[in-house]
């Protein structure tokens, strides 16, 4: 047997690479596929140009009245004129900086906690949980020298974000308690947790909101007046903590039994084991699930429209009734949709990214 | 190339597999380079080489789990090309055992073995079950017939996978690293079955790192590296007197 | 609820004290657990007593009587869509039934449409065709990231309300009409002899069942396969057709006709139902598509390869190997989507489709003021549906779980 001479690398046949090879493989690999490709192409050609024309090329951007909308396309002037209202509701314009500051600060804190390798995470976390809510309350509502802005002035995207974040803020700890309760060996806490979780998960959010807006005043002492926003928040938090509990329970269940056994073997108490060993790991694995329930919550905040709060969708919807701007509902929905979509899509991408990072071993 | 289109059945009758100038690319990456390989009936061939050398890809091309882009592959006188009838015939003729067993977890061991005989060979269930039982006995696990794959050990699963392939009564068996996913104590039970099979005269192509197995049963050992066949020889000369440096390096690392 | 926070402190059963030496009563794990549970039970009871007390006081103050007597009172309001006879003279109790039936109607239709659409999109997402897969991906990412309520509003206010008046209806061959008042379809009128056609249809189905049994048995015995699917399709199409023509075409259609300002006759789908149905189907389909996709992808590629290596054809691989395994992943998730769809149908109230929440927890509640009873009844309906289905799902999961060592 002769000694081997290495074979050089050859370029692949032209039919399997390049644009032609790609198209053969991905678009025209069989007669059926070719038909599908042509059909899909027809759909794209038929519908994409009119949409682009309407939304961009023929759209009206400049001006401040509906008379400015003379071209055939979308009238973005409507959105432009109403933009601050869509963002801040009826919040006094000279106080907008408070809202921007509060959300800006929250953004910085969350980014600090989510980005890897930032120092002093635990201090920032403690600040976010303990101090930030007070700052935010003062900024949004007033006090300490800032003029008071009643909650019925809050609205638009600002209210949507407030509902979602506060709902989340309460749902997370309650969810943890309920999840631990459901896994407890003691019958009474377990039964209470199961009933609580299954009750809220079994009914639509609307009925929960109806309940909190109609029945909460009945449940409380007569002279106690509860703010409409607070009522909605109570409903949202109850509902959300039930879903959160199930997500966290999933994380606790997925944790190998060896972890709690090892913690016991080291002599840690139940509480120490929970906070030092079990919960940090379980919560880390369920972050994608938590983000997903947050996305659901974010979409569900639109339901407060039904009990009369002015969130983003609600304020856009009410703008259609303005006699000066009749007939621009499509523009309004597209704008509101875009805002919701950007939030939800980016969060879902983030959660997918985390999931991929958690499951590094991929199958095939 | 042109003369190959009219493959004379008589002259090459004892050839089970014939690969001529076969190339394969993954995108721009040249995985298999000018592979030429003739396998006679009843011949037992071991393919070895470092990981990523294309040895698995080579045997996966033989039953068209991967598609080659240039050259020809003939199995039992049938050319492997885009013709679906050819592919079907060839796949019936070749059994394959995978590294990860790939048993169907929703079916019992017996159902795993009967699935293809019933739906491909159109056998009556009774007959299929009898054949299956026969082969399960041969791989020494007839008592597990009603269990699900998840209930078996890795070694048992791999033996079921072998039995499942044998139920199709193939002329050729391909083994793609059949023992790599097994715990050491289970490797032997699988190798024993494979040795039995070899002794009965099955045409076998086996990708493996089990050099002991290669020494006992192989008629020929093929060494591959970076997508080409570097060296082939009978086991004795291969192990005692390797020709190329790369073979020597490889052998020094695994023996 | 706050009290719950501390129960875990007492949950020390794992770390029981080993030594038999005398321990203080409160250091005994069992006693601690017992004490905590008693405290928790007392706390929760006090909380409910507080609520009950306030509620009774508040109700007395407002002069609202409790109880379900209101269900027998005359409702006095109309409902735009009712599947059972209903007039303003009927009772509140009947509004409950009417609303419930409307919820069931839109949920059932929504589940059917969403499943079909979702499966098509999910399979398209997996297609080897790049363009088709990308379009399906765009569909999924668009609709699942938009709030359902916004989608309902879009279809109702921006699309259906922008349709022309009845006089200028869009139509297909003067038989199907679409206008701002809704969708008008011809309704079938069954004449004498249609029973034969129905009979033929039932006969075809029975024949299919028998055929399937026979073909299965024959395959068991001889191995011969029989094209059951195609034969059955032929039977089910052909037999009723033959009966239809043999009995002199006993089916006619009543077409909607424009009379005055609106259409009369035929089947009317009110725009509220149409918008809700479209939005629910389109939204849920985007979620089902993802479930189908991930379900099929959850079956490892090795399964397909092993089946192909055994000589099975792609269609058989799908039917015998992939689908049975994917279904175990798909069905539980799909069921929870169905439950979500039923719950989401309550968004009907935002556009005035007369479902349970809109009619009963809306109008009836406002007219009677019986908030507790009405909301409890409404919640009980959804809770019953949810719990029944999750009970069934748990049973299914336990049954279909892959057996492991």
Describe this entry's structure for a reader.
With 364 residues, chain A is mainly alpha-helical. Chain A contains 14 helices and no strands. The radius of gyration of chain A is 27 Å and the shape is globular. The model of chain A has no long low-confidence stretch (mean pLDDT 86). Chain B is of the alpha/beta class and 255 residues long. Chain B contains nine helices and ten strands. Chain B has helices at residues 55-62, 84-93, 109-119, 125-138, 154-166, 184-199, 211-217, 235-240, 245-254; strands spanning 15-26, 29-40, 44-48, 70-75, 78-79, 94-97, 172-176, 203-207, 220-225, 228-233. In chain B, the strands form two sheets. A six-stranded mixed beta sheet of chain B has the order 6-7-8-3-9-10, sandwiched between helices. In chain B, helix 6 links the parallel strand 7 and strand 8. With 405 residues, chain C is α+β, with helices and mostly antiparallel strands. Among the domains of chain C are: 2-61; 92-163 and 268-400, MetI-like (MetI-like fold, Orthogonal Bundle). Chain C has twelve helices and eight strands. Chain C has helices spanning 7-10, 29-62, 92-126, 130-144, 148-159, 194-222, 228-246, 271-298, 301-309, 314-344, 356-368, 371-400; strands spanning 170-172, 176-179, 182-185, 187-190, 251-254, 257-259, 262-264, 267-269. Mean pLDDT of chain C is 86; it is low at 1-18. Chains in contact: A-B, A-C, B-C.
Computed over alpha carbons, the radius of gyration of chain A is 27 Å
CATH third-level topology of the largest domain in chain A: MetI-like fold
Q: Please give the share of residues in helix of chain C.
A: 55-70%
Q: What is the H level of CATH, i.e. the homologous superfamily of the largest domain in chain A? A: MetI-like
Question: What's a concise summary of this model?
Answer:
Chain A has 364 residues and is mostly helical. Chain A is 69% helix and 0% strand. Chain A folds into three domains: 14-57, no CATH class; 80-89 and 152-358, Orthogonal Bundle (MetI-like fold); 92-148.
């Amino acid at each position: 047997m002769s000694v081997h001479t290495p074979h050089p690398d050859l370029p692949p046949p032209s039919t399997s690479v390049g644009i032609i090879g790609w198209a053969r493989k991905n678009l025209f690999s069989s007669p059926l596929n070719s038909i599908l490709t042509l059909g899909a192409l027809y759909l794209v050609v038929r519908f994409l140009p009119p949409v682009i024309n309407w939304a961009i090329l023929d759209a009206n951007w400049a001006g401040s009245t509906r008379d400015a909308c003379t071209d055939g396309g979308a009238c973005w002037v409507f959105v432009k004129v109403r933009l601050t209202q869509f963002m801040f509701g009826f919040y006094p314009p000279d106080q907008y900086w408070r809202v921007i500051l509060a959300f800006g600060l929250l953004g910085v804190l969350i980014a600090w906690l989510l980005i890897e390798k930032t120092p002093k995470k635990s201090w920032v976390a403690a600040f976010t949980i303990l101090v930030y809510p007070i700052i935010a309350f003062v900024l949004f509502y007033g006090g300490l020298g800032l003029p008071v802005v009643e909650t019925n002035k809050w609205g638009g995207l600002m209210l949507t974000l407030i509902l979602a974040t506060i709902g989340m803020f309460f749902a997370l700890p309650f969810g943890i308690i309920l999840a631990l309760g459901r896994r407890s060996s003691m019958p009474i806490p377990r039964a209470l947790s199961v009933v609580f979780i299954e009750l809220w998960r079994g009914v639509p959010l609307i009925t929960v909101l109806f309940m909190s807006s109609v029945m909460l005043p009945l449940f409380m002492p007569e002279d106690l007046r509860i703010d409409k926003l607070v009522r909605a928040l109570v409903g949202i938090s109850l509902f959300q903590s039930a879903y959160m509990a199930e997500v966290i329970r999933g994380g606790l269940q997925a944790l190998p039994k060896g972890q709690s056994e090892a913690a016991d073997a080291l002599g840690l108490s139940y509480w120490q084991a929970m906070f030092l060993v079990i919960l940090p790991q379980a919560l880390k694995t369920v972050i994608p699930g938590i983000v997903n329930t947050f996305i659901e919550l974010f979409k569900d905040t639109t339901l407060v429209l039904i009990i009369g709060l002015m969130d983003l969708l609600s304020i856009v919807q009410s703008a259609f009734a303005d006699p000066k701007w009749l007939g621009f509902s499509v523009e309004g929905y597209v704008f509101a949709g875009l805002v919701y979509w950007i939030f939800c899509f980016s969060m879902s991408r983030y959660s997918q990214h985390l999931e991929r990072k958690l499951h590094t071993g991929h199958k095939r | 190339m042109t003369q190959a289109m009219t493959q004379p059945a008589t002259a090459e009758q004892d050839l089970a597999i014939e690969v001529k100038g076969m190339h394969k690319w993954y995108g721009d990456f040249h995985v298999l380079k000018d592979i030429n390989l003739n396998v006679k009936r009843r011949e037992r061939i071991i393919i070895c080489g470092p990981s990523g050398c294309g040895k698995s890809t080579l045997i996966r091309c033989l039953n068209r789990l991967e598609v080659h882009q240039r050259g020809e592959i003939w199995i039992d006188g049938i050319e492997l090309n885009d013709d679906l009838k050819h592919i079907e015939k060839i796949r019936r003729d070749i059994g394959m055992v995978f590294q990860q067993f790939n048993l169907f977890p929703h079916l019992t061991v017996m159902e795993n073995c009967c699935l293809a005989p019933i739906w491909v060979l159109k056998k009556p269930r009774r007959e299929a079950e009898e054949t299956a039982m026969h082969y399960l006995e041969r791989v020494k696990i007839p008592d597990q017939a009603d269990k699900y794959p998840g209930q078996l050990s890795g070694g048992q699963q791999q033996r079921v996978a072998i039995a499942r392939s044998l139920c199709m009564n193939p002329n050729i068996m391909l083994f793609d690293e059949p023992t790599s996913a097994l715990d050491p104590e289970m490797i032997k039970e699988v190798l024993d079955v494979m040795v039995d099979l070899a002794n009965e005269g099955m045409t076998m192509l086996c990708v493996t790192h089990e050099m002991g197995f290669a020494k006992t049963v192989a008629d020929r050992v093929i060494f591959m590296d970076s997508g080409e066949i570097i060296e082939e020889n009978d086991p004795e000369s291969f192990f005692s007197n390797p020709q190329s440096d790369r073979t020597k390096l490889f052998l020094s690392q695994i023996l | 609820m706050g009290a719950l926070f501390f129960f875990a402190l007492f949950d020390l059963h794992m770390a029981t004290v080993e030594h038999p030496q005398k321990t203080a009563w409160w250091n005994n794990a069992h006693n601690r657990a017992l004490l905590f549970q008693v405290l928790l039970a007392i706390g929760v009871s006090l909380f409910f007593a507080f609520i009950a007390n306030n509620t009774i006081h508040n109700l007395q103050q407002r002069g609202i009587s409790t109880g379900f007597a209101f269900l027998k009172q005359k409702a006095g309001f109309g409902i735009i869509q009712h599947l059972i006879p209903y007039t303003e003279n009927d009772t509140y109790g009947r509004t409950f039934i009417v609303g419930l039936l409307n919820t069931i109607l839109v949920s059932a239709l929504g589940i059917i449409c969403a499943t079909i659409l979702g499966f098509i999109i999910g399979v398209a997402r997996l297609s080897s065709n790049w363009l088709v897969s990308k379009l399906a991906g765009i569909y999924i990412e668009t609709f699942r990231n938009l709030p359902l309520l916004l989608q309902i509003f879009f279809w109702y206010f921006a699309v259906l309300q922008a349709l022309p008046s009845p006089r200028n209806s869009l139509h297909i061959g003067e038989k199907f009409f679409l206008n701002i008042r809704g969708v008008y379809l011809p309704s079938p009128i069954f004449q004498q002899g249609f029973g034969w056609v129905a009979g033929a249809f039932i006969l075809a189905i029975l024949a299919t069942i028998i055929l399937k049994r026979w073909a299965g048995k024959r395959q068991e015995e001889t191995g011969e396969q029989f094209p059951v699917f195609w034969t059955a399709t032929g039977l089910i199409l052909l037999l009723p057709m033959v009966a239809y023509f043999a009995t002199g075409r006993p089916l006619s259609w009543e077409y909607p006709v424009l009379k005055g300002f609106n259409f009369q006759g035929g089947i009317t789908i009110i725009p509220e139902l149409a918008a809700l149905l479209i939005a629910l189907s389109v939204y849920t389909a985007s979620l089902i598509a993802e479930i189908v996709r991930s379900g099929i992808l959850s079956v490892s590629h090795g399964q397909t390869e092993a089946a192909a290596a055994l000589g099975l054809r792609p269609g058989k691989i799908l039917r015998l190997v992939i689908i049975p395994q994917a279904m175990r992943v798909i069905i539980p998730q799909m069921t929870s989507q169905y439950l979500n769809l039923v719950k989401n149908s309550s968004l009907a109230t935002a556009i005035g489709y007369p479902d349970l929440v809109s009619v009963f927890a809306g109008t009836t509640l406002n007219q009677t003021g019986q908030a507790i009873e009405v909301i409890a009844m409404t919640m009980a309906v959804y809770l019953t549906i949810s719990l029944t289905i999750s009970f069934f799902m748990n049973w299914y999961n336990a049954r279909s779980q892959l057996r492991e060592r």
